[in-house]
Write a structure and sequence with these properties.
Blueprint: E1 2-4, E2 7-8, H1 21-28, E3 37-38, E4 63-65, H2 77-89, E5 95-99, H3 105-108, E6 120-125, H4 129-141, E7 146-151, H5 161-164, E8 169-175, E9 185-186, H6 187-200, E10 204-208, E11 212-215, E12 218-221, H7 224-234, H8 255-264, H9 275-284, H10 286-300, H11 319-326, H12 332-339, H13 349-367
Parallel strand pairs: 1-4, 4-5, 5-6, 6-7, 7-8, 8-10, 9-11
Antiparallel strand pairs: 2-3, 11-12
Helix pairs in contact: 10-13, 11-13
Length: 368
């Protein structure tokens, strides 16, 4: 990974900018980060050694441009054409451009951009739902070959699933805010976007917790040097088909605690077995119902990314379906929220048996 800052300084634009680390760092050395200046690293990707070879090679990894500014900043218009020339020359390098100004993209691209350059990924930020709904439609509508999304700092729960379903977004990154005035980031927000990515088959990175991290309703203040390490330790980054979720540690809830929580839920407690359901159970017998439950769990829940996840369990038609909704065993999102089983993992035999046991416990209590 290489950081390339052809210019430095930025203008705050949206809520995510409020506690900008560039402003904070510059202020600590008596510098005004709102003043945009061209840097000595302007030509970094094409600098050469005494042997006339490029100092930066593909082995150095992806080049991230303008990490202390914004690539599409108005104040940098006079310098951008030269940067495009450099990126064009270094077609052997992969560049990532992260921006809050995706709305300026078309007026800033080079003459030969066409439908995009294969070595450039454009990453649009969205710190909240408002910015996601403004920026992501623009991102999807532009001539870009590689698109990514980053929500950092993540300031609230965000739903980007409809944009992920386009199939045009290649990666999503989420993370909390660092610094002394950091706003909180809730782990449940991270998990929800991760689940959206799993359903869409899009790689996801949980980059950092931020300084103020909420987990299970508790607030944690996390030292700067531990924020990325804690995110990595959680195991919540995701690449389809890599089995990464298998490494996420979790504990199943105590059955008594689970059922007490379900009873307190207005939604879960509304489910009951009808007279027809009870007759069906009596006619088939509990062993057959258990067999049906095991079959439904295997076929509809056990894969890493079940088909139509979130909608795969009907609300009626079989007593096991009713039990699944009543016990929050209806989809992988509910399994994660209520049973702590991470989304994105293939359910093993022990986990499948646990789910079937929960379903049968509820059914047996209903039947009496």
């Amino acid at each position: 990974m290489t950081i390339w800052n052809p210019w430095h300084g930025c203008k705050k634009l949206s809520p995510g900018c409020a506690n900008c680390y560039v402003y904070r760092r510059d202020e600590s050395i008596g510098k005004d980060a709102s003043i945009v200046t061209k840097t000595n690293d302007y030509n970094l990707p094409i600098k050469k050694t005494r042997q006339k070879e490029y100092k930066i090679t593909p082995d150095d990894g992806t080049v991230y441009a303008c990490m202390t500014s914004d690539f599409f900043l108005e104040e940098a218009d006079e310098w951008r054409e030269g940067v495009w020339d450099i990126i064009r020359e270094r077609s052997d390098l992969d560049f990532v451009i992260i921006t809050k100004r995706i709305h300026r993209f078309e007026e800033c691209i080079p003459f030969d951009w066409g439908d995009g350059w294969g070595n450039v990924t454009i990453c649009s930020t969205c710190e909240n739902q408002d910015r996601a709904d403004y920026r992501l439609p623009i991102l999807l509508d532009l001539p870009i070959k590689h698109r990514a999304v980053i929500s950092e700092p993540m300031l609230e729960d965000i739903d980007i699933e409809k944009y992920l379903k386009s199939g045009l977004i290649e990666h999503v990154t989420c993370g909390g805010e660092s610094g002394p005035n950091a706003r909180p980031c809730d782990f449940k927000w991270i998990k929800e976007v991760r689940r959206q990515c799993i359903r869409a088959g899009v790689p996801f990175t949980f980059k950092q917790t931020g300084a103020v991290f909420i987990m299970d309703g508790k607030i944690y203040h996390i030292d700067r040097k531990l924020q990325m390490a804690q995110a990595k330790k959680s195991g919540y980054s995701y690449i389809p088909g890599m089995g990464m979720a298998d490494k996420i540690p979790y504990e199943l809830p105590l059955r008594k605690t689970l059922f007490e929580g379900l009873a307190r839920s207005d939604f879960r407690s509304r489910f009951y077995l009808s007279a027809d359901d009870r007759k069906y159970i009596a006619d088939k017998g509990m062993d057959t119902i258990r067999s049906h439950a095991a079959d439904f769990v295997t076929k509809r829940l056990s894969s890493e990314n079940p088909e139509n996840d979130g909608k795969q369990t009907p609300m009626r038609g079989h007593p096991v379906f009713i039990a699944q909704h009543a016990t929050a065993c209806c989809c992988r999102g509910c399994l994660e929220k209520w049973h702590h089983i991470p989304a994105g993992k293939v359910l093993n035999e022990e986990e499948q048996k646990y789910i079937v046991d929960v379903l049968m416990d509820w059914i047996e209590k209903e039947v009496g």
